[in-house]
Amino acid sequence: MVNVDRRRFLTIAGGATAASMLTQSIERAAAIPAHRATGSLKDVEHIVVLMQENRSFEHYLGKLRGVRGFGDPHPAVLPSGKTVWSQSDGTREILPFHPTADDLGAQFLQGLDHTWKGGQQAFAKGVYDQWIPAKTPVTMAYLEREDASFHYALADAFTVCDAYYCSFIGNTDPNRYYLWSGWTGNDGKGGGPVLYNDELGYDWTTYPERLDKAGVSWKVYQDEGTGLDAAGYWGWTDDPYIGNYGDNSLLYFNTYRNAQPGDALYEKARRGTKARDGQDYFELLRADVQSGDLPQVSYIAAPEAFSEHSNWPTNYGAWYIAKVLDALTSNPEVWSKTALFITYDENDGFFDHLVPPHATNPQIPGRSTVSTDNEFYAGSLGDGAFGMGPRVPMFVVSPWSKGGWVSSETFDHTSIIRFMEERFGVVEPNITPWRRAVAGDLTSAFDFSKTEPAMPALPDTSAWKPFDDKRHPSYRPIAPAQGTMPSQEPGVRPARPTGYDLDVFERQARGAVSAEVINEGGLGAHLQARLLTPAGAPHAYTVGAGDSLTATWPVAGAYEVHLHGPNGFFRGYGGDSRSDRVAAGARRQGDGLSLLVTVTAPRGVEVVVEDAYAGAVPLAGGLATLDTTASSGWYDVTVAVPGTTWRRTFAGHLEDGDPSTSDPALGR
User: What does the pLDDT look like over 530-564, one tens digit per residue?
Assistant: First the structure.
């Protein structure tokens, strides 16, 4: 390990006032207008990807206003009968908690297990109740706005994706292989599948190779450390302030390892700055931006200290991201044509409450209308679904994504490749049919129309101070003996439209709850059924765009089944098969924002209908019409028979192709 004094840190950081200037980086980026020559994706001439390390969405942004965080009105329910946030260590339940240390964003918060084995244990075949045994109680620790001010400012100034998942249940390298090649060698060829950070040398084709063949320019911006070769361990060094932390995973493929100086792959993937000699981390990036030579596709890999991998502080990562923004905006003409994706390779071991989408497989019953080939690993390292893994933050930072929006379409790391596919026409065949059905292409996170949104006020970060550049012992927070569920920031934020249009129609079936799932939208969708009573294994369903399927769950006597889908879609079925006498359904009425609720009940049976946003809904002739305009298309309707256990719940969002707002229930 190389320890360097405070003076060196201040030199690296650009001066003692660097942290206080972070907000200026955001303001500068937000002030530059977009290039809107065509009003389409073609206006994007440069795509930049900065993939940081090891933070879950809820660990960073669970309290952020207007995202599906701690205020989710329909979280998954565990076999214990408690919500998914009530994770047990075997003796007590531990809720999300905010560590008590001062200036949490500057703390060296401990890292947690993030292996394939530990991830599969926490996932628990979709039950999702083994997080603490797999990860320790610190899995439930979260940050607030004051701890991650820069990240919250990014979300408030640009667009945050609250349904972006890492691709793989496990380590850094496999997740980065999804970013750079569409999978982790799932078909068993070329040295795959890779489930750990083995870095043995692989031979399947990467996406940058395809870009190169198609004549699309690309480059990796990184620091060389002590050498981008085996002797320099491909950029990962003992000094955390130099190198690339091994995050240029292209260097674990033999075509790049065998490349020679002068070869395209060598020049684009094995060159970098020389911070060991005092060169600025961002000199090469800044020079290409200022000269107008920024490639069409760029990848950035930070040194370890700035990667946000625990135990490195969040604030260090914020400084690095701000410097990237400074470099990219140093030429306003270039920035006006640039889309920057800032995301995280995996969640470390930090908890997130949304059960990730996953294909039906030998461990998880269900159905799929699309192929699920190459989505399940069976082998000596322990069977399990490759992914998706838990949610991670994704900030879409560009002149076309300003205004503090949320995008709630399902995405994962392959979505970044899909965005490049849409822009440059270079297809990645490694992406499986299931991923293509369930994960979008990120274009819906942008507004390419010729409008310029107003900017929100940004938080002040002038109180931030830089720290020394030494390694520090980990801060190990203690979960409180008696926890309380955190609340989410009140209010809503503007929401990008999504292409979801799901209907679920309950069908009469003896000894079962049966539902026909119809997907009339332009996006495929994953749904999970949780069989609470009688207790049963969760089921996974994938319905491709324009497809339908029937799901049937055997019941005998009392029952409760929950069906969870994308963007808050929820259906709840409760009752007793021996005495049920009522039926109910809900569907969009026409093309607008009205929901039609239908009820069939014997004469004399009282049925009540209530919407969580509008209150009581009058029922006449077995019909109730709910205008959701006031709640921006959101509905949360419960139909119940007082004095019985019979209940149906219908919740979700009616899309009309226009922007709306986030779910008002999230900030209550």
Answer: 999 999 999 999 999 999 999 999 998 999 999 99
Q: Which residues of 263-285 are buried (b: 16+ CB within 10 A; e: fewer)?
A: eebbebbbebbebbeeebbbebb
User: How far apart (Å, rounded) are the C-alpha atoms in residues 658 and 164?
Assistant: 21
Bridge partners of 311, per DSSP, are none
**CB of 368 closer than 8 Å to CB of 541:** yes
In the chain, what percentage of residues exceed pLDDT 70? 93
Average pLDDT over residues 34-59: 96
**At 22, phi and psi to the nearest 5?**
-60, -40
Element (H, E) at 365: none
DSSP state of 13: H
Using CA of residue 99, residue 103, residue 108, residue 114, what is the dihedral sign? positive
What is the predicted pLDDT for the residue at 668? Answer: 77
Q: Please state, rounded to an integer, the average pLDDT across all residues of the chain.
A: 93
Q: Is the pLDDT of residue 612 over 70?
A: yes
Those residues with Cβ within 8 angstroms of residue 513's Cβ, 6 or more apart along the chain or in another chain: 506, 552, 553, 555, 559, 561, 573
User: What secondary structure does DSSP assign to 99-141, as a single string?
Assistant: ---SSGGGS-BPP---SHHHHHHHHGGGT---HHHHH-GGGGB
**What band does 7 get if pLDDT is binned at 50, 70 and 90?**
very low
Q: What does the CA dihedral 240, 164, 47, 447 come to, rounded to 10 degrees?
A: -140
What values do phi and psi take at 98, rounded to 5? -100, 115
Tell me, what's the pLDDT at 45?
98
- What are the tens digits of pLDDT across the range 575-593? 999 999 999 999 999 889 9
Which is nearest to 635 in space by CA: 599, 592, 574, 605?
592
- d(CA 409, CA 498) in angstroms, rounded, equals 6
As a whole number of angstroms, the distance between CA 579 and CA 559 comes to: 11
- Reduced to 3 states, what is the DSSP secondary structure of residue 181? helix
CB 6 within 8 A of CB 468: yes
